[in-house]
Specification:
Its cofactor is Zn(2+). The chain is an alpha+beta fold. The strands form seven sheets. Strands 21, 22, 23, 24, 26, 27, 29, 30, 31 and 32 form a ten-stranded mixed sheet that branches. Strand 23, helix 23 and strand 24 form a beta-alpha-beta unit. Helix 10 packs antiparallel against helix 15. The protein is globular and about 80 Å long. It starts with 54 loop residues before the first helix and ends with a helix.
Length: 857
Amino acid sequence: MRTTRTVPARPVLIVTLTLATAGSLLLGPDSAGADPKPVTRESAAVDDRAAEAPASAARRALAAPEETSTGTATRGYPRRQVLSPDPENPGDKSLKLGLTPYHAIAPRLNALQRLGDRVSVEVTGRSAGGHRLYLVTVTAPETTRQARAQERMRELIENAPATAAKSHEIKRGYKTPVFVNSNIHGNEWEGTDASLKIVEQLATAKDAKTRDLLAHSRLYFNITANPDGRIAGTRANANGFDLNRDFVTASQPETRAMRRIELDTQPAVLLDLHGYVNGTLIEPTTPPHGENYEYDLFLKNSYANALGMESAVNALGYTPAKDGVEPAQIPFRDQEEGWDDWPPIFTPQYAAFHGTVAAHTVEIPLAVNNEEYDELPVPELRRRSAVNTAVAGAAIRATLNHVREQRTTLVADQIEVFRRGAAGAPQVPVSPETVPGVPGIGPEDVYTTTFPRAYVIPPGGSRAQRSAPAAARLVDHLLANDVRVTRAMRPFRLAGRTYPEGSYVVDLHQPKRGMANVLLADGRDISGKVSVMYDISGWSLGRLWGATVERVPSGTLRGAPLRPVTGAAPVARVPVHGNLRLRLTDPREVAALNSLLQQGVPVRQGPDGSAIVPASARRAAVAAARTHDVSFAATRLTGGTPLHRLRVAAAVTPGELFALREMNFDVTPVSTAVLNAGFDWSGTDVLFVSAGLDHAALTAPARGALDAFLDDHGLVGRGATGAALNAAAGRLAVTPVEGNTDANGVVRTENTGRVTHGAPAHAFVYAPLWFTGLGPDVRVEQSYATGNSLVSGHWRPLRDGTGGPAAAAGQASVVSGGRTVLFGTEPLFRDHPKGEFPQVARALFTVAHSGSVEESG
């Protein structure tokens, strides 16, 4: 666990907050300072644990329909429903802590709805493990007509912000939306219990301030964002995903449900309740700050609310000597670096792109998970959980107090976020002048970007067939994130270039321009800005998802033949005559191939690695094209090596396991423990290893069985673990060189082999690896580009000058030979870099279907 450096606390801005009256729910905090505390990572930088998620969880996530709307105003409030109870589960990990087990939540919500007319409950979907996700809304009753008026004002704020800014109706009557998200990490439990207590108090409080709050606000509580993890006592959901890293990709149903809540409710304020940092850590964060959102508005409001939460938490009276609880801390003021808000993968940072102007991760203080859960006595665990619940409750109450007092400002600033986007207005850099009252703002806090005029995504076609499914997937993903996309009805010119009919255009003069740009832009190399980052630093969908994305810096769209779209045009196409060719350059194409092989269709491998389907299987190809939205081309080729459905044993990370299943591979998770328990290799065609398999830790029988398998079968390895197994098994003659293990980002590459045929000229790396000392039979499939290959992210040399991008320049990043392929990149990272997935698929097919890579080349 890395600890960041600390600096003397920046001066604290003292604000006067009105104390709540006795008996009021709303808490009036006392002012208090914080001692600077170090910040540590929540988890290891490199995931070296093998995934064990059941296939059923992946199927549920992949087959889940698009999330349903939760905040539409077709009905008034309250919106009551009686929830059926879940079976009692004595194994629920919450029970040991004296907290609410998942099976008790539905009965509790039923009881809360019966307390009056302020509480509504809706089911927003199901988790990867099949558990219901509950959204509780607390507000003063609304008729259907009043609810429709709220919806109309919400839409006006986003769609016509200049008009909304002048609306007296909005200033008088719009209910400020607040979103409290709890338990996104399953073994950080107490936010759920604090939320349930707050909802109960709100349901029955009679004081004037509570009545005023509910008359002018809608409060949304996502009771447990991760029920799978809550029950199992794990950080991740049933698929092994950290949901607070999934917002760019939205691969998991829980993430999509949270996204839908944010789109439907458009919260001005958001709390994401976590644990555990002592003292309580409250955003805003240290640099670097996300360059694509309106940080001046974000910092202004988030810092003011953080001060209120800090005071409320410290006012609880816990002390280091008496309770083991340190004073609360605000990283922006109290820390130098290491807890940044740079990537849009975290809940509060993602929310900022949808108009949230005060957003916070709140890390409650006392650890009760992991080794503490296993080793501390139950009374101590329950004492800590009670403290944590009280701290989370204080943070929520202080936020509600801030919303009640500052709702006009919060809504006005949300409108301004959307107005700047729609008008194409420049960002406002933070400074003591632009954000008065926030102490310690310096050049290290200034991050802005230059928005292009537009992005153009060509649709693919005869000359760019590989990009057609990728373009469609990218467009649909943009739309799911509330980015507006248009499509050209005929060829058009923009900034001196002609684009074909069917091209998609993302106009950056739109309310959520930050969302569009953060997804499509290259990003920035920030290696020289800070010495340490909290999580990933580069993520570009424009570079990593396989579609062609062209940035148009300037120009006008006036008169362009563009029409708004609600979905990408279908890609599916099958020629009526001849054999069929399926290019394996997109994960959807791989999934389609695997579905054909599963049906026993006689598919052969073409000379470039594509799949050749005989004309006799046209009906099956049509079905596959429709199911996976892919296009087949006519060909006279008959193919070479017959392909068969692969049975893959995989010691890989959760994201890699999920990506393999997304491509419809038949995968069996393995690990050191699984092999030592006695694994039957007879049903396996190929082994993929990147995590959780240590050759030296195997028993003699397990090692012998593995070695015997590798003598006759293929190996695909990724990263240091894959390279170590390759060396132990004596396969490829290469020397793996590990770069800085904290490095990550988007890099330029040169593709020179069949495994990487048709791949993007960019890759994603995390703890990058490269290969030297290549033996005579080793083929270079891909290399890091010469010069500084890092496009965006954070990649520094180590203190001795090694391990940096200069050392990797021109070196092999993917190598093959002798039924083995090794990756130094992260082609399946967290199910994210979609355009790289086919590299792994091609590697698996190649090593499993040939005596060597060279023989099939």
